[in-house]
From TrEMBL:
Keywords recorded for this protein, A-Z: Membrane, Transmembrane, Transmembrane helix
Transmembrane feature ranges: 12-35, 47-66, 78-95, 101-121, 133-154, 174-196, 208-229, 235-258, 279-299, 311-336, 343-368, 374-394
Name of the protein this chain belongs to: Uncharacterized protein
UniProt keyword Lipoprotein present: no
Coiled coil: none
């Protein structure tokens, strides 16, 4: 029998490894080491996105929606193939960056994601296919598949146009946009609808349709925000801004659903879980406002000129919105137990490093002074996140956790 909790611990292990690589990168600025900085950046990003988030999300989808006894053998093959790809990337990226073996394993991982998507859509129970949760999950999987157009295009772009071409960056931004916004955030919204259904909260078809018809087109159109650094025609600013506004409207509909069912949510969730859910909602709102701001030419140019704003935004989305939301679902359904010390340390590390990254961006923008020992403080703040993850893994080393499903 596949032990779902063990798989979640494996995904947390990848998160811990990615966090330690992040500390290594920030320590490198303070005390240079005999490593290739760019190669470690590639390793850090791939293990964070694919080892932690992808693996945790697909494990949740398998656990909640599929018949584990009937499909265990097939899923096990997908699991081990995915692990092979992740380990291959882990053993190749630090030593060669984007080269033969890392490209092979990255390509195989794309195939693994296609395999899982087809497996999930084929074997999802018919009763589940009529739910609002499934609609979100299905479109999230299609966005994930669609995002791979970016990596597939890179080979041809590098051969024909070279890595200095704007199409090279656009292909990367295409992949990241539809990974973050299309796959990760939309599937988390699907899991939230699953939670509402689990709590017997009824959402009208009309309300869900309004949410869906604003959120999904908003995700597609907001990709144009990732193209504004090229200085395109005005229409691209308008389309990107419209996408950001549509996503904000969809967010508002989701918040109204929560407010209308606040009593049920507050009585069912523990105070800790309820506060975590509110935190996720706040972090997502800030993320969407930042996204909307970049539809304005001044802020679009600013985001393109000051790299720290882009890095801060990506970390806000990944460490703040996506990872905190994952912690919420894993804790509520009993797959992990979060201690207040661990979550406080994690959030402390997240907020401290985000504050420092955005401060450096503000310093570059407004000419503020960068205080002494900035890099040391940033590296030290980054260390709080892997320590928090070690505490999470330590507190969940046993198997005495009751699983809700």
């Amino acid at each position: 029998m596949i032990v779902v909790k063990t798989h979640i611990k494996v995904s947390l292990g990848y998160f811990l490894l990615a966090a330690l690589l992040g500390v290594l990168l920030r320590t490198f600025v303070v005390a240079p080491m005999p490593i290739n900085y760019r190669f470690i950046v590639h390793t850090h990003s791939h293990i964070a996105l694919l080892g932690w988030v992808y693996f945790a999300l697909t494990t949740l989808l398998y656990h909640f929606f599929l018949d584990k006894q009937l499909l265990e053998k097939s899923y096990r093959r997908i699991f081990w193939f995915t692990q092979l790809c992740l380990l291959g990337m882990l053993l190749s990226f630090p030593f060669q960056g984007y080269a033969l073996f890392s490209i092979i394993f990255s390509t195989l991982f794309l195939l693994a994601s296609y395999w899982f998507s087809a497996f999930f859509i084929k074997h999802a129970p018919q009763a589940f296919k009529g739910t609002k949760a499934y609609i979100c999950v299905k479109y999230a999987l299609w966005f994930m598949i669609g995002s791979s157009i970016g990596p597939w295009a890179l080979g041809g772009i590098m051969t024909v146009l070279g890595p200095e071409s704007i199409w090279y960056r656009l292909a990367i931004y295409f992949y990241l946009h539809f990974q973050y916004n299309g796959w990760m955030i939309l599937v988390l919204m699907g899991l939230f609808f699953y939670l509402l259904e689990y709590l017997k909260i009824n959402i009208s078809t009309k309300t869900f349709k309004c949410f869906f018809l604003t959120t999904v087109p908003g995700i597609v159109l907001s990709f144009f925000l990732s193209t504004l650094w090229t200085g395109p025609a005005l229409i691209y600013y308008i389309l990107g801004g419209l996408g950001a506004v549509l996503q904000l409207i969809g967010y508002g509909i989701l918040i109204n659903i929560c407010r209308g069912n606040r009593v049920v949510l507050k009585s069912t969730l523990s105070q800790f879980q309820f506060n975590t859910l509110k935190l996720v909602a706040f972090l997502l709102l800030v993320k969407m406002i930042l996204q909307w701001l970049t539809a304005w030419p001044y802020f679009a140019n600013l985001a393109a000129a000051v790299l720290d704003f882009t890095i801060g935004y990506l970390h806000w989305t990944f460490l703040g919105v996506i990872s905190t939301a994952l912690f919420f679902f894993l804790e509520f359904f009993g797959l992990i137990k979060l201690t207040r010390m661990a979550i406080a340390m994690y959030l402390g590390g997240f907020l401290l490093t985000e504050g420092l990254i955005f401060y450096r961006g503000m310093a570059a923008w407004l000419g503020w002074p960068l205080f002494e020992d900035y890099s040391i403080l940033l590296a030290g703040g980054s260390l709080l996140i892997p320590i928090a993850l070690m505490l999470v893994l330590w507190s969940n080393k046993g198997n005495e956790i009751k699983i809700q499903a």
